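pinging the channel bc i need a second pair of eyes. not urgent but kinda urgent?? the chain im working w is below, pasted from the shared doc
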Amino acid sequence: MKKILLMTSFISIAALIIFMLVAGAFTQPSRYEGKTVTAVFFHGLNKTKEKDLVDIMLTKKGVPLSFKDIENDRKYITGFGRFRSVEVKYSETKDGIQLNIHCVEDDSGKTVQENYEGLKVKKIHVSGINFLTPGDLTRIMSTKAGQPFKNTDFEKDKMEILKIVKIDRLKTWFEKDKDGVIIYISCREKPFVFLNPEKYEGKIVKERKLYGLINLSQNDIYDQMRTTEGHPLRAVEIRDDIENIFNENKLYNIEILIEEFKDGVRLLIFCKEGQRIESVEFKGMEEFQSVDISELLALKEGQIFRRDYLEKSLKSMKDKYNSEGMFNSIISYNIIPNEDENTIKVQFIVDEGEEIKVQKISIMGARNIDYRDLAELMETKEASMFYDGAFKKDVYEQDKSKIIAYYKERGYLDAQIVEDMFEYEWENPVKQDKRAIFIIMKISEGEKYYFDGYSINISGKDGKTVFTKEEFFRDFELQEKGGVFNDLKFSQDKQTIGFKYASKGYIFAKIIPKKTVTEREVQVKGKMEKRKFVFHDISITEGEIAYIERILIKGNKKTKDKVIRREIIINENELFDARKVQISRQNISNLGFFKQVNFDFKPGSTESFVNMVVDVEEQPSGTISLGGGYGTNSGFSIFADLAENNLYGNGQRVGIKFEYGPLRRSVTLSFYEKWLFDIPLGFEFSVYYRMYENKNEPSVFPKNDATAQYETQIVGYTADFGYRFWNYFTLGFAWDHQFKNYLNPSGNSADEIFMAVSRGIQEKRTVSYYLSFNTRDNNFNPTSGVLCGLTVGLTGGTMLGGDDHYIRYTPKLNFYLSPFHLPFLKTHPVVFEFRASGTFLGQPLNSRQLEKSKPFEKNPWIEAEDRMSMGGPETIRGWDYTDNRLPESWTSVKLFDRILYGVELRVPIHPQMLWLALFFDAGSLWTDKKWEKQLTQDYRDIIDQDKTNKNVYDIREALNNKVDLMSYFRYSYGFGFRIQIPMMPLRFWFGRKMLYQEGTFKTISDYNFQFSIGDMRW
């Protein structure tokens, strides 16, 4: 009995559950929202055709279910046929949802249309037309919005619509709206067939009819046509009319139909006006400004709406959000048509989603490489005090590639990520207030492989080869047999072969490596061990030599083609040369006008030719910099720099720069043309005004703590011409003409300053000749190459005149090397900069003759500012100009010759903006007995005292090896930060002073902080 009761209870409960599920399928259909409609079945139809109902429904097979559309469908079906009721039921299928529409037809014989007799017509909706417009139809109808509905008039209206030449059929249905009715008219246009106008050549045009106009007027269209009523038809004129009307009015499309009419012809002109975008709006967007996003969109206000542009715009917005780590954002859109005009509003609705951080990264399967090393490679980091934990899909994909590449560099060629997943979970399952991302990555390392060597087989033309095997072997990175196989070095070896051939024009050379893996036992640390060895047999088919057929430039909107083309050193119809291509890319990048410069190669007209496509992405060329700062030697100042670096797209630069502070005030106007007269002749012209306040150790009262000071005022202009040749060389000359005077000396200033003040304005005329060699890959942020040169500046003399007379020799050498980059960050190269420079002041030409006409006793040939100083961030960082560990002649007098050298290691934190730098600097000053006699007696006494104490030497003694150079130089080392903000490079240095004594370097200070704006020397 208990078993029967138990079974009965179980059956009852099961039946109840089944009933609730079945009932829920019909009473709670909202749970099917968004599921795919797999089938639509109609029930209860007798007089009405199922196809007619399917045509007017919004809900279709294969689309997601929308209950808003279902409600409208019920209204349309009810308004279309003789139905007393329409009920929709749902049943779930394996792939989605099935609709069963049950209709009960009205047997009264009265049409639905008659039911609305006398009701006010609220709206008339017309659909299904292409070239025609709703206005073309409603204008011929007697039924109007706002008037009572009359069944007989509407029947006549339908007959009139069907008479229009383009209408093939129509359907109507109705919807009751409060005390009125909404009428829906669905039309189908006839397929268009353009009759050959030559068939009607010469026949008189009797009539022209226009359809489809909304914003345009008929007269505007007729005025643009050569074909007119009363004149013979010409086929050529008809085709011109189509083109003119289409282009002038920016139509979406136009068609002209010609038909026989009253002993002539009639033209039926169908115009399709494109919908114009009135506005583009954004809703729900907080992370970005509308202006920033608008620049990314293909859709623009005032343009014709295009569906493909809409899809591109959606993708651009999604990519932008993904790039910022907001990968769970959802972007949708609304197209809102205006009722009275052929314009639309495009509205983007953004759900930026919640800000989700990476909580945990788990790397599983790493046995031979520490998982912490792998995690360190990843740019995706767990949220912590030092990392924000942002998740970006593209960055995460790069992280996975870095890990696999890291394994392959260490010989694990079969390494792969067999599974990875990232899950959204509650950061705190109890609170459930914040979600986080948990990343799980499973790695299969595989075995380690070892290098077993290369063999090379070259197939050349007629048995001759361009290169020998030995030429490749000596340049390969992989050399040591038995060593770990490094997949990165193997890729570099293949690139070496390709680059060598491309440099000789063999761009089509085929390089096919064939890998052979063998396993054998080798002795390792006294034990036999099985290892796998990789041997590559590289087959090279040299192929045909290639030539550049055409050079195409794209992507430049502002910059003129010639500005880019003139930087390309390879010409059309010239032999392809990879080295020249590389230099050309470097030249274009060095212009500074482009974010990216990419070269691509497309097949030419024959197999021996290729087309070179130069694709650039421009960046803003106008710069405005306003700011202020403090330099340890220049004091406080504010500055502004306004420049246009690509004037009118011609590659010219104009700018104005000024600085104002208690110690420095200046303004400079400049113009620069890199290609004067369209030849590689650079021309620069500038006008400047400068006012400096100079501070020195007191001379009259040397034990007084007060600093001696005076002002220097300079007005002048410069003109510079430099001719570039052989890709890397520049030969030029510059003219500098300035007027200088000294003002407001303090009472403890040196005698020579008071004498300079008494002489008034001093004129200086200088012509400089220079030769430079520059192979740097980037002038603004070099990572490789050499910059060396010699400048000889002739000031005054018997030929140039003026008040200052000397020759300045300035040799310099900078060498850049990037032997490696940050792990798996090829865009972050670590750079060594080796540098050496000198400045030497020599006697002017014809100095004896000059001494008679302009004796230096009356007016010294060298001013105080022209002599050399030491210390500060521009020479040896960590030392001050007035450092008491420097010889007094270096600080108080300043000398005539200077030698500097050093090395700097730059580690990129952000490769375009921020670097950590480690440095070693060395420098020295030297006197010159020929110049000493022009100094005041006080200064000569200081130098003599330093000579006696062996603290200063004449430059000639260095040439005669009479000086212990290591002990004579001053040194420093330390670290700092280089911040490259446009037009305002900032430098922060922490340097420690060093001396070389008793055969070793000795640090003599703690870290000294120095700061400067600008990068004048380094």
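so The CA atoms of residues 832 and 905 lie 5 Å apart. and Confidence is low (pLDDT under 50) at residues 15-28, 699-703. — does that match what u expected or am i reading it wrong
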